[in-house]
Amino acid sequence: MLIYYILKYLDRSKFEAGLVCFAEGELILDLPADIPVFIAPGKFSFSQKVAFHLGFHPIHRAIKKISRDFQADLWYVNTVMLTDVIKIAKELSIPVISHIHELSAMYSQVNSHDFETIIKDSDLLVGCSDIVCKCLTEAGGKTVRRLYPFVDLDEIAPDQEKVRKIRQEWGAGPTDFVWMMSGTSSERKGFDLLPDIALQIPKNARVHLVWVGSLSNDGLVYWTKKRCEQLKNVKVHLAGPQKEDYYSYMEAADGFMLTSRQEPFGMVLVEAAWLGKPIVSFASGGPTEFITPGLGTIVPNLDIPLFAESILQWNNKLSSFDKDFSRKKALAYSVEKGVFHWQNIIENFTTGKNI
């Protein structure tokens, strides 16, 4: 979403931009018409596979052709996973900024030489939180800037009729409490911790736990679903991905739980705060930089009994939760402020004011 927001709200009087991606994602159709989109091969055809084995890399060839067609002054790489792009940028003597949204759990997905390439050959490293910036500096990054994620708060517009129906579908009555988590069904996101948290909550607490997000076809999901089916005290709802009604689902919850074992920051925290939901999160990284007293509770990482206890404590004081304070916190991460900060980083970089 960050790249989408940047391209949508970019100051056209200062910047011209194009997008290179490796698949035709759904957000491409929502991009402004003046942003050219180039598709590099993410999956190889038979002829491209043959070319690759003959020493002609289809991705490298495609990106170099795009570079000739759209002669950019700067490349902006939006993940730790695209080291080939950085190598091509260096080969073509094009400055490159790498925006890193990942912590150490993802570093293991990149070999040491490629990770070194990111750190040493990026002309500027941008981290999505202080903890990510710390990791980049520890790895040898010389010039590191922080840019927190940001959200288009105007797009957060729940449909109240859908909210009512969603709670009905869950069987959540007016005296029930619903806590939601949003994310991929991975171990890093703590999907498998759902039944462990549920087992710490007494039946008379009338709590529902909801997971919104795609469910992978793997053993971790299968095992976790089976464990959830056996629960007697808490209802667990696996809602799947909810692109169109996502904010209605979030509004239907009474609170937001971030179960990640490791989290670089978590844009969902901003969304939950804007909707006035108390947050319970493990001390998994970036959330400690966002959640303050009055906004939610930070629990020592993987202290599941205390996590469940914190949910119950917030249930008892929902009526006194300061939603105005919560929304004020979210305002600091609005898309307007985020794009403004991003443009400052780019302008400082291009003018040599990279302090």
Structural summary, described in words:
This protein is of the alpha/beta class and 355 residues long. The chain is 39% helix and 14% strand. The strands form three sheets. It has a six-stranded parallel sheet with strand order 9-8-7-10-11-12, with helices on both faces. The chain has a four-stranded parallel sheet with strand order 3-4-5-6. It has a two-stranded parallel ribbon with strand order 1-2. The longest helix is centred in the last third of the chain and has 16 residues, at 335-350. The protein starts with a helix and ends in a 5-residue tail after the last helix. The model has no long low-confidence stretch (mean pLDDT 91).
Q: What structural class do the secondary elements suggest?
A: alpha/beta
Count, helices? 15
Helix amount: 25-40%
Q: Would you count the extended β strands for me? A: 12
Poorly predicted segments: none
Shape: globular
Distance between the termini: 27 Å
Largest sheet: 6 strands, parallel
Question: Secondary-structure element sequence?
Answer: HEEHHEHEHHEHEHEHEHEHEHEEHHH
Round the mean pLDDT to the nearest integer and report it: 91
- Gyration radius, in Å: 22 Å
Strand order of the largest sheet: 9-8-7-10-11-12
Proportion of residues in extended strands = 5-15%
